[in-house]
Amino acid sequence: MGYTRSGGGLSTAQQAAKFLGVSALAGAVMAGLALPAVGAFGLTAKETVQEFDDIPANLKTPPLSERTTILDAKGGEIAKVYSRDRTIVKLGDVSPYMRKAIVAIEDARFYQHGAVDLKGILRAANRNAQSGGVSQGASTLTQQYVKNVFVEEAGNSKEKFAEATQQSIGRKIKELKYAIQVEKELGKRRILENYLNITYFGQQAYGIEAASQRYFSTSAKNLKVEQAALLAGLVQSPSRYDPVTNPETAKARRDTVLQRMADMKDITAAQAAAAKKKPLGLDVSMPRSGCITAVKGAGFYCDYVRQIFLNDPVFGKTSAARAKRWNQGGLTIRTTLDPQAQESVQKSIKSHVYQSDKAATAVSLVEPGTGKVLGMGQSKPYGFGKDQTQINLSADHNMGGSNYGFQVGSTFKPITAAAALERGTKPYKSYSSPYKMEYPSPVSTCKGTWTNGEGATVENENESERGPYGMKEATAKSVNTYFVQMISDIGVCPVTELADKMGVERADGKEHHQVPSLTLGTEGFSPLTMANAYATFANRGVYCSPVFIDSITGPGGKKLKVPQSKCSRAMSEKTADTINTLLRGVVEDGTGKQAGLQSRPSAGKTGTTDERKAAWFVGYTPNLAGAVWVGGGPGASGLKMENITIGGVPHAKVYGGDTPGPIWKDAMSGALNGKPAPDFVSVPIKDPNARKPSPPKKPGREKPGREKPGNGGGRDNPWPDISLPPGVIGGNGNGGNGNGGFEWPR
Fold first, then answer.
1. Cα separation, 230 vs 224, whole angstroms
2. Four-residue CA torsion sign, 393, 395, 401, 406
């Protein structure tokens, strides 16, 4: 918020009160300070001196609030944020014209007097008496500086600001004593430097550098005489003399300053006359602050950094202390955001999902082994307008995300499989996996047992999905009944415990439900959480907490402590390698085939929830993990994605493989372009004790016209937008169960 200093835009009565207060306090300055009687205010000299002596001797000057700059990992600027737009500069970096102009108009005898200018007081008293009003004040630059310190300390608190600017003898006494201290300790040059950096110039510009940029789009050191005169004239009343809204009044004030500079011999009369003839010459740079100005769609990444600062105790023990530190600014925050990855995320989003679509998408990319969040974006950009939002669809609720996150569907199943493997289940474990079944009961949980008292049932995506299945095929086909039998077998607790080790926490911050349906992805999580969880698989079982901030430099180059990623083993290498082997099959031959990367090994899992309210693809390479969610954005959370157009492409039904998959593929491909392409460590999945299959029959042994159909073969392809190989759905039946290795979309 902007404030005017005392004397700016005050009524005649207020200015008179101000003048009387200063006069009564100043009285006379001889060898030391002598305070006169101030009977007009109901005070005696003795009482005033006592009040003066009771004031603490040291003026505590708070750090000046400045803008904070947020950078990407390569040093490129993402955004500038600030409570007050200010850039502190040395006096040597301020135009000589500006130094002379501010002294000429605000305190012409600045270099001749001490904290109080007795001659100035007497001169003002005489002129005010002659005019019958208040035409001049008597505060010195030093006194003004002290008052501005109190205003700065008040911050945006209206109560504290009122206290710092109240027209009272008590405040004037306090201001005067500190002015004496400042004169003694700092000296004239430092006082002038501090004054120019702290003063408010209007238009949200604090300090001379910000003002120079705001009104003339130039630096303080390059100000011309007419520009300096205009800025110096603003100080008395930034709103009254605002050149943007009141150009004529501002020009008259500027010319007054120029004339005063000529009277003080700072410039010649000819220079003043020439400058007066010039127009204002404004080149206004409008205030641009906050994450809404972030480049490359990094508005939500920027806001996440702010949320970290305001929530992490490393930046202050209390929320008030952290907020105060953030508002003071002056920070240079280098983040982990990779500009190549972020650009790829945004490009992929824009090519697949339009901002105006009913459906929305969110993408997060995480580096396995470091926890560095390299990219974050969504189709509904950061803002306040139509098809914009301030909800970060990639984040948990406490970090600016949606209230509950989004159900993740079958992307949760690999966590169940990993928990089973950790408890000794073989990767070729087989379950009957019928098309439909009741939930087994009872099932052990962390808090006892769960029983299916209502006879709840679960079924697979398609009737052709009937077991028995082993883990590899069940994962590829995403067989619901297989994973329900598995979690019922090992218990819910091992699954939720492993989820916690992998950082898979609910977006609303609540505990996991201790129910078998957990394995079907019925709880709400954020894309960032899922990307980071799958990074644990990519990192061969070691979980690393996500980090956004690489370093922070404060004012004066001081390094601040920042949160570090904490890594811990969540599962054995063998378990992680087995999951990686299972999930490679999804992108090579299953529902995630449309997401498979061409030039490097990749793994992942599709997910689709009930009524098509959310579709996912979460996948990874050994050096990058990413999660893509597609669903109803803010205001459309109950959207059913059937008979819907997304990114200009019509869909009868949205699946994890056909919309999130391609978004993931394009985002990952661009992010990894030019990067190494390491391979996974593969693990054999086959049962070593299983009987070897019979050798295939030689050609010609079947009688002509007796081709043996498979179960469910020859059916029409229900997804005409998915290209299927011969022998699969809609083929000649050679697929056996009608799928032929094709994973039903989830």
1. 10
2. positive
Note the pLDDT tens digit of each residue in 575-612.
999 999 999 988 887 778 888 898 899 999 999 998 89
For residue 200, the tally of other CB atoms under 10 A from its CB is: 25
Are 382 and 633 within 8 A, CB to CB?
A: no
Strand ranges (E), 170-288:
none
33: closest CA among 145, 177, 160, 148? 177
Distance CA 462, CA 454 (A): 24
Q: What is the dihedral of CA 538, 541, 544, 545, to 10 degrees?
A: 100
In angstroms, the CA 659 to CA 641 distance is 11
Q: What percent of the chain has pLDDT over 90?
A: 64
Alpha carbon distances (Å) from 409 to 210, 373, 374, 394: 51, 23, 25, 16
| Helices 118-131, 12-26: inter-axial angle, 10-degree rounding | 140
According to DSSP, residue 196 is labeled: H
Does residue 77 register a pLDDT over 90? yes
Can you read off the two tokens belonging to residue 711? 């179960």
Return the biggest CA–CA distance within the chain. Answer: 126
Angle at 476 between CA 372 and CA 607, to 5 degrees: 55
Contact present, 480 and 461 (Cβ < 8 Å): yes
Q: What's the number of CA atoms in the CB half-sphere (13 Å) around residue 170? A: 5
Instruction: Say yes or no to pLDDT of 185 above 90.
Output: no
Place of tokens 């679509």: 357
pLDDT at 126 over 90: no
The rounded distance, in Å, linking the Cα atoms of 633 and 300 is 15
**Per-residue tokens: 609:** 């929830």
Element (H, E) at 254: helix 247-263
Q: Which of 649, 642, 594, 652 is nearest to 614 (CA)?
A: 642
- Please give the model's pTM, rounded to 2 decimal places: 0.75
Strand order from edge to edge, sheet including 68-71: 77-81, 68-71, 332-335, 549-553, 559-560
- Nearest one of 368, 292, 407, 400 to 668, comparing CA atoms: 368
Backbone φ and ψ for 206, nearest 5 degrees, come out as -110, 125
**E strands of 595-713, at which residues?**
603-608, 614-621, 624-632, 642-646, 649-653
Interatomic CA distance for residues 468 and 128, integer angstroms: 101
Residue in the structure block whose two tokens are 């969110």: 362
**Amino acid letter for position 231:** L
pLDDT value, residue 299 = 95
Q: How far is CA 564 from CA 372, 544, 551, in A?
A: 10, 10, 10
d(CA 395, CA 478): 26
φ, ψ (nearest 5 deg) of residue 454: -100, 5
HSE at residue 431, side-chain half, CA atoms within 13 A, is 27
Overall residue count recorded for the chain in this entry: 746
Three-state SS annotation for 284-342: CCCCCCCHHHCCCCCHHHHHHHHHHHHHCHHHCCCHHHHHHHHHHCCCEEEECCCHHHH
CA separation for the pair 68, 290 (Å, rounded): 9
Torsion angle of C-alpha atoms 216, 220, 221, 222, degrees rounded to 10: 10
Sign of CA dihedral 572, 578, 581, 586: negative
| Sign of the C-alpha dihedral computed for residues 39, 41, 47 and 51 taken in this order | negative
